[in-house]
Amino acid sequence: MFTFNTYKSIAKALITKKSPYYVQFYINGKCNLKCRQCNIVETNSRVAEMSLDEIEVAAKNLKKIGGAIVLLTGGEPFMRKDLPQIVEIFTKNSLNVRLQTAGTHYATETMLRDCYDAGARDINVSVDSLDFATSDYINAVPGSGKNAIETIEMISKIFRKDSAILSFGTVLSQFNYREIPAILDFAKSIGWFVSLVPVHIANQENPMGFRSYDDFFKFRKNQHTYLDDLGKELIALKRSGAPLFDSEKFLESGISFLKGNAPTWRKDSVCDSPNLYFAIRPNGDFSTCCDYSLKQPPSLKDPHFADLYNSGEIQNRSDVNKIVKSCGGCHYGSYPEVTISVRDPKAFIERTLMVTKFGGNKLKNAKTQSNFVQEIENIKAKYPNVYPTQQWMAQDNYERVVKWSTVEGRKDLVKEDQEIRKNQNRIRGQGEDFIFVKE
């Protein structure tokens, strides 16, 4: 799965806690979905994209500073027609590529195969519900839920090497919290992992780059006991072989986060950005993560970026330190898991075994010639207390899902959503950039 360069970077991270082996690269600010719990496209839609030549410079910089794994995300990264060439740039520089997609119709069979041929072996597809009406409401696009499952079926036929890592990215929220065991069951039946991310909701008084302001996704106090039970159930399922990619510490911290508490993965409030991870905006700007931006950021397309990073100049900037030390903490998945893996030997061993052994074995037995949509119906039939979702979903949430499933109701919700986004300055391609931190 990993290159020698990646193993070397991870080993250095374990010893020194200073090796940026995981980098998120937002390669564009475009997406054909308007997911209600996401704000990253609104954040980056006014930012220009790097050319292939500029990305080549960025890749060389990452290699020089000890980078190893690059997540190519967006927006919807498959909206860039040159995505296979971008993958090839990083793999030729001995960097492992992880792809992230909503599984929209832009992720065609040709694009997926070209990315695979260019060296991509790790891909994550957004799956927030096995109920397509719920998925479509969350994504704010009719048919998007089914489209994602059909894309997953294509990926399963193309990404077949034992070393490939295939996973669902599932945002845990009010709309799907009782579905998680069923989603895990479906993932297991087709040889995929599930990576859970607790929903992140900000408020307008304290805006953050990735987070929307949709309170319908937040958990209510009367659900906290169930959240505690869910956390215990997930750990038990993981220990019994469920394909849950997250570490136990991450799961425990995630439940606490969903209840409105600070994440517990940040022992002594440690955030390891930018020593172990950081983000790159579409134009090449360095950022500590997706939630913040710098007023005068260094750029990865600057040939001298590696010199600045290796000298410690970037890590010692006052605005960078301000973010790292004052941020209340996130729970996006990748960053917490890197910190947990590097600082907790048990979690590191757990993740290593999962990637190197169980990942391959799962794929060997995975279904490739199957109807995945029908497979979902078979799975749902095993969970009569979950489906239909009306049995447990908060009434106001369920009413919105039902309303979205009708043409007239959808028009009303779209109009309402557009007005809300306008008031929140979340119109794509307009307004000022998101939160800046000055030196």
Describe this structure in words.
This protein is an alpha/beta fold. It has a single domain, classed as TIM Barrel, CATH 3.20.20. It is built from 17 helices and 10 strands. The strands form 2 sheets. It has an 8-stranded mixed beta sheet with strand order 6-5-4-3-2-1-7-8, sandwiched between helices. A two-stranded parallel ribbon has the order 9-10. Strand 5, helix 8 (180-190) and strand 6 form a beta-alpha-beta unit. Helix 3 (52-65) packs parallel to helix 4 (83-92), helix 5 runs parallel beside helix 7 (144-158) and helix 6 crosses helix 16 (395-404). The protein is globular. Mean pLDDT is 90; it is low at 431-439.
Layout: helices, strands, pairs:
Layout: H1 4-16, E1 22-26, H2 40-44, H3 52-65, E2 69-73, H4 83-92, E3 96-101, H5 109-117, E4 122-126, H6 132-139, H7 144-158, E5 165-172, H8 180-190, E6 193-198, H9 224-239, H10 248-258, E7 277-280, E8 286-287, E9 293-294, H11 305-310, H12 318-326, H13 334-343, H14 345-364, H15 372-381, H16 395-404, H17 407-423, E10 436-437
Parallel strand pairs: 1-2, 1-7, 2-3, 3-4, 4-5, 5-6, 9-10
Antiparallel strand pairs: 7-8
Helix pairs in contact: 3-4, 4-5, 5-7, 6-16, 8-15, 9-10, 13-14, 16-17
